[in-house]
Amino acid sequence: MTPEGPKFVIQGLGGKRLLSGKLAVNGSKNDALQALSAVPLFAGIYKLKNVPEIEDINKLTEILVSLGIKLVSRKSHELIFDSSKLSNSSIDPEISKRLRGSVILTGPLIARTGSAYFPHPGGCVIGERPIDFFLDGFKTLGTKVTLEDKMYKIEAPKGGLKGAEIFFRYQSVTATETFMMAATLARGVTILKNCAIEPEIENLGNFLNKSGAKIEGLGTTTLKIRGGKLLHAPNVDYKILPDRIEAGSLIVLGALAAKKLEITNCEPKHLESLITWLRLSGVKITIKSNSVIVIENRSDPVFAPLKIRTHEYPGFPTDLQAIISVFLTQATGESKIFETIFEDRLHHLHILKEMGGNITVHDAHRATIIGPTPLQGRHVYSPDLRAGLAYVIAATIASGESVVHNVHYIDRGYERLEERLRQIGLNIKKE
Ligand code: EPU
Question: 425 versus 151: which is more confidently predicted?
């Protein structure tokens, strides 16, 4: 892989527990992506709070502005949009190809304007990312879908989208968000079945309901949506949830490299799966209302191996699979990883193996990790944001210096990571 842009230079702790302090979790990338995507559902002023200051949000903001939506103000972690006018419904192909989350925007856009024009969205390198649920779902709501010059064109009939029943073949986070929003403006009733139930979806649904939408069944796999007219300027702000994936990653960092680390500004009930597994392994975790504390007084703790199978929420998140893999290189005995959500999300295991992990990758979904093995620092290349952070954690516990290249992937999802890690004692520089 060729290095691009900035890199992190990290002096590893060589297995010592030298980190300590408090780290606050930022707003959730994926909640913010859907919250920004909801802007076209409204005609008026729309305020978002606790927005992470990350590249993905900058890109989506650019797309909104290119659609004619006004960015009224951008303050610290707060964005205000004016969506009174929309001048077009064509999603910038260059930005969209680099941002999978932009696909969510198609729902509100088609619902409000009757059409959308967009390329196959891009994103991380974690295997095939099909959009068949989106294309099939839009057809079910009455649209015509065509593909011209690698751009999809979706056109609703006169009178707009028509409510219908959609069954998702897999629980899909972005498809659930997209159709929940599209149905909000469709004529009649839409029933969505086998929906994803990630907390971000419920947060969006509650916000839409407070702004005049009629969505029933939030938090369950069946949603019933009575469509209606364009929503008006919401009288509540959209408060982005704390990022449960960032929080979970920091908990694992604490478990491996800290004497005491308090992760604040998080929602522990969104982290039940990770915390249950880590406690089973022997990690000492204290839960408070909005924070999680990881304490380890032993210099050489023994952690039990785990059998991790990724699963839709509330199961073990695929977005923490690379992170828990680093942890398992330090557990005593044979651990298993079974990635069930994505086709090609085990690449990081080859790198962890080169750093010293005793890892066998059986196929694109399953691997065995035998620990504990010390890790050695080296040059690594982030392929995506989650694996990138896993390399940062591996470099932290390794001995010697590591260089994590392609930090722009990490910057897509984590705000000022290096500054925050320095605060808890890590020797990390961005160059
Ligand atoms: N799927 C299809 N067809 C579709 C859509 C999805 O077959 O049209 C399949 C996928 O291939 C996958 C399964 O459905 O096997 C579930 O994928 P899902 O659609 O839920 O993934 P997503 O909505 O594209 C979101 C997050 C991902 C996160 C997954 C799973 C956003 C913007 N992205 O993706 O986040 O991994 O849910 O929880 O919300 C990340 O943040 O690093 C990230 C990749």
Answer: 425
What is the 91 CA–ligand 1 centroid distance (Å)? 20
Q: Find the helix packing angle between 347-354 and 321-328, rounded to 10°.
A: 30
Per-residue tokens: 4: 């691009």
* Ligand 1 atom index nearest CA of 342: 15
Compare 121 and 401 and report the one with higher pLDDT. 401
Give me the mean pLDDT over the 32-43 stretch.
Answer: 94
How many angstroms separate the alpha carbon of residue 339 from the centre of ligand 1?
A: 13
Quick check: is 266 catalytic? no
Identify the bridge partners of residue 80 per DSSP, sorted by sequence position: 47, 73
The one catalytic residue among 124, 180, 285, 404 = 124
Half-sphere exposure of 71 (CA within 13 A, CB side): 17
Q: State how far the Cα of 207 lies from the Cα of 177, in Å rounded to an integer.
A: 13
Give me the mean pLDDT over the 39-66 stretch: 93
pLDDT higher than 70, residue 125: no
Bridge partners, 153 (sequence order) = 117, 146
Q: Is 238 in the pocket of ligand 1 (CB under 6 A)?
A: no
Q: What is the pTM of this model?
A: 0.96
What pLDDT, on a 0 to 100 scale, did the predictor assign at position 123? 56
Which tokens go with 19? Answer: 């980190």
- What's the pLDDT at 146? 93
Mutate to test the pocket of ligand 1, among 135, 170, 195, 385 (most ligand atoms within 8 A of CB): 170
User: Which one-letter amino acid corresponds to residue 213?
Assistant: A
Cα-to-centroid distance, 173 and ligand 1 (Å): 6
